[in-house]
Amino acid sequence: DDPVMRELFTKSRLPLETIQRVWKLCDIEKTRELDRDEFVMALHMCRILAHHTGSTVPHVLPTSIVPRDKRKQILSRREQQQQHQQQHQQQAGRLPPSAHFSSTKSAEERALVYEPSNIQFH
């Protein structure tokens, strides 16, 4: 809740709800505070959203804007979420026990290679 941070986000002229969604998405460590890297990512996303009419906050943080040292955290968390979801679906009888992670790269893994086209906000 640093006043300087608040002022920088306010200058984006984005709705408060949008700024809150960006903040939550960029808070990789889920501390409800942004460290330096998370803050830079959030400002970057706000600038993109402010300058591209019709853009919306993505559901998943584009790994291409995440510093390398934090990418493993994100991928690990996503893998855990996928495993949990698959276990839940197996228990509900919706997936056969043999349906596990495929050997092909996921979209998140492919996004680890920086390409400007990987950053898309719709």
Provide the gyration radius in Å.
17 Å
CATH architecture: Orthogonal Bundle
- Mean pLDDT score: 75
Q: What is the helical fraction, as a range of percent? A: 40-55%
* Annotated CATH topology: Recoverin, domain 1
Kindly give the count of domains: 1
GO cellular component, one term: plasma membrane
GO molecular function, one term: calcium ion binding
Protein name: EH domain-containing protein
Region (Disordered): 70-122
Can you walk me through this structure?
The chain has 122 residues and is an all-alpha fold. The protein has a single domain, classed as Recoverin, domain 1 (Orthogonal Bundle). Helix content is 52%, strand content 0%. It has 5 helices and no strands. It has helices spanning 3-10, 16-26, 36-51, 68-91, 107-110. Helix 2 crosses helix 3 (36-51). The two termini are 28 Å apart. The model is unreliable at 98-104 and 108-122 (pLDDT under 50). This is EH domain-containing protein. Residues 1-72 form the EH domain. InterPro entries: EF-hand-dom_pair, EF_hand_dom, EH_dom. Residues 82-91 have a biased composition (Low complexity).
Keywords for this structure?
122 residues; mainly alpha; Recoverin, domain 1; 52% helix; elongated; disordered C terminus; EH_dom
